């Protein structure tokens, strides 16, 4: 858990949002290993040290009538990028999707993150430009919940 949380914080710092990280090791432990895990993680190791992770959960497509994988976070320590860790993590998710009959693996990437976009596109991933992500959180979420 310490390594995954460290990488989560590194990713948030890279994405200029470290101040938004509220997760603790215990939060991650409960989510990944609690009574009913609904989120999953894979790690990449280099010389015995965790240098990357992919954290994901199941989605469902009513159009496909099948589950899919939503990749919440993919991050590899900058010192070990270019060594195949990110590709190996994505390949593992693709393997899981194929083996289980899932219809897709999808994720979001920040528009300014051109290195990641280039990496994803080199693997054959394509942007879904016709969709806009919306988020309801904080006070608006609470207000709607109490309607």
From TrEMBL:
Keyword annotations: Acyltransferase, Coiled coil, Transferase
Pfam families documented for this protein: Acetyltransf_1
Matches recorded under PROSITE patterns: GNAT (PS51186)
Domain N-acetyltransferase intervals: 2-146
InterPro entries for this protein: Acyl_CoA_acyltransferase, Diverse_Substrate_AcTransf, GNAT_dom
Iron recorded as keyword: no
Coiled coil regions, renumbered to chain: 4-31
Residue stretches spanning the membrane: none
Name the record gives this protein: GNAT family N-acetyltransferase
